[in-house]
Amino acid sequence: ESCSVSECAFPQVGVTAQKTMRLLPASGRKATQKVVVGDQDGVITCFGIKKGEAVPVFKTLPGQKIARLELGGALNTPQEKIFVATGSEVRGFTKRGKQFLSFETNLTESIKAMHISGADLLLCASYIYNHYCDCKDQHYYLSGDKINDVLCLPVDKVNCITPVLACQDRLLRVLQGSDLLYEVEVPGPPTVLALNNGKGGDSGEEIVYGTSDGKLGLIQITGSKPIPKWEIGNEKKRGGILCIDSFDILGDGVKELLVGRDDGMLEIYNFESAYDPVLRYDHALSESIASIQGGCVGKDGYDEILASTYSGKVHIIYSINSAYGDVIKMKQAVLLLQLTSLKIFVLQEREKYQQSSQSSTAVSSVPAFSVNDKFMLNKDDASYSLILEVQTAIDNVLVQVSVNFCESTDPFCIFFLVFCSLQPNSNFLLATYRCQANTTRLELKVKCSTIFSMIRQYGTLQAYVTPRIQPKTCQVHQYQIKPLSLHQRTHSIDHDRPMNTLTLKGQFSFAEIHSWVVFCLPEVPEKTPAGESITFYFQNTFLGTQLESTYRKGEGCFKSDNISTISILKDVLSKEATKRKINLNISYDINEESVRHTLKLIHPKLEYQQLLAKKVHLIDALRELQVHEGNVDFLLPKYRSILEEADQLLDEYKRQPAHLERLYGMITDLFIDKFKFKGTNVKSKVPLLLEILDGCDQDGLIAFFEAA
């Protein structure tokens, strides 16, 4: 359901990070609230709104970029002190802008997440959690993976400090002092945490989380175990969740859940019952939403939603049916006039710059600009999304990539494609995306697969981002496409499956073999794990096969129900060890039953894709027949069904055009890998295998594998 809202953007600050905008408490019963924002120029800006105009309260001098902004104060009093995390330092300001705290922590890395509860300060760097009380070190914890967010259950309700860490490995880690109390697995990498209804629910133990793949959930964190309450998937394939707030924007006496996503989608969920959230309204902004909060800023008695976006715009979302709407409509008219005069001014200044740059004494500097990027695996279609967001309009993006597919989801984008060499470690393609209109965000899909020539596709994707600024400049961003790029971390596997085993032994350190695993597989923390050994579990998002990886100094053991996974690991790990001049003793145990098992996993997908392709190929002929005959009642029901579902079938086929080829490639690899471990080259039999695949006979396919 679309939200009947209007939107107004107020004066822009610098580029903002996640959770760096808050509303100060109102000073009186009917008074409006002030907005405080911290940006990556290190500036804290505080302003109010009066008659549709921004009224400044204070603005600090530039400094290190602000990673987090939180409000604090004594427990059970208005939280009106402003705290910002910059580098490894925490600074405190009064609501008037006077600095009263400068706390240099003992963290060796920059602060990534922060939470404040009275005199207690919870800080997180990439892997390290620190708890301070009155700026004195209390507790410390080293996480197994990167920490994305942190919060503490309300002390006035649970009577103790209970920190919860949102970690990249799909876990919430609940701490007690410096110790891990327990872990909670969630359906995706959690990016943001918030207390349910702002207070943790009736018990104070309820936490709402959002994930990088767009899922929402509520978990009760008790003293002994977690209790999941509800979970919402991402059926609409929207962006990852960056911010969450609770506020009664609908005025029904129950706080709604406000959600901001990295694709610019703002959502409002309300509750038909305590644990039954329903999406009621949504509103699309043009940039990722870094912070969101409900409050009253523009006019006494009228509630709004404030959202700050990546480039530093602060948006106010409100109902156009409110009396406040007329004020905002006037404000929008004024903004249009200001925008027109600003465009004229920019053209004049650009002309002056070009004239001065051509003089003999001219000195030109490269303009700096920020790029917000994200490279993540989409489980649903086994593709990677590359999201690029720039603080100004994008002119073009050149993608240099060693995999075989790259497309844009942006309709305001002209796409040029050049295919290059198929040789290993060379460019498979160069793709140029020239953006139209005022595009600041571009999303590309990259699909990685193994092709019939048996080139294992891995390498580097490079994106050259050029914005519409003068003089022309670009930034280069690199992303690793790993040999087992379609795998994702999981925390349990089915140990009853038939498994193949690869064992490595040699004179290598724990850190060296860990670096090889990082090179091969996604979602593995770069930091070498604590302890003497580690076990990771993975699942192939396309086939559903699994991998168990256990290693220590001098030894590594890898188990998978897919022979091709073992084959890739054997080839890549051997190559990495050779680079370091390390001799490996490699042994393997191949389970013949695993081949039959993998084929049974693949076959339903193969059968579905072949049927889909056949239906799509019939659509044009059936439509032509429909035009000539005028009536298709004489057709068999299955053909009439194809005509009725034609648009849906074409859309599905367009969204996954290479699925059938990928399945053929994976079955071909499985066939070749099975016999490679026996020392037999069966590439000459691949054409016969492809003929059998066209027939889609599972028993015949299994018989061919066993008889070859």
Question: How would you sum up this structure, described in words?
Answer:
The chain is an alpha+beta fold and about 700 residues long. It has 4 domains: about 5-320, 7 Propeller (Methylamine Dehydrogenase, Chain H); about 370-480, Immunoglobulin-like, CATH 2.60.40; about 485-590, Double Stranded RNA Binding Domain; about 595-705, no CATH class. It contains 10 helices and 43 strands. A 6-stranded antiparallel beta sheet has the order 38-40-41-42-39-43, covered by helices on one side. A 5-stranded antiparallel beta sheet has the order 33-34-31-36-37, with no helix packed on it. A hairpin with a 4-residue loop joins β27 and β28 (about 315-320). It starts with a strand and ends with a helix. Residues about 320-330 and about 450-455 have low confidence and may be disordered.
Report a brief summary of the structure.
It contains ten helices and 43 strands.
Please, how many helices?
Answer: 10
Main sheet summary: 6 strands, antiparallel
Strand content: 35-45%
| Computed Rg | 28 Å
Order the strands across the largest sheet as they lie in space: 38-40-41-42-39-43
Write out key terms for the chains shown.
BBS7_hairpin, Double Stranded RNA Binding Domain, Methylamine Dehydrogenase, Chain H, 708 residues, single chain, Immunoglobulin-like, globular, 6-stranded antiparallel sheet, alpha+beta
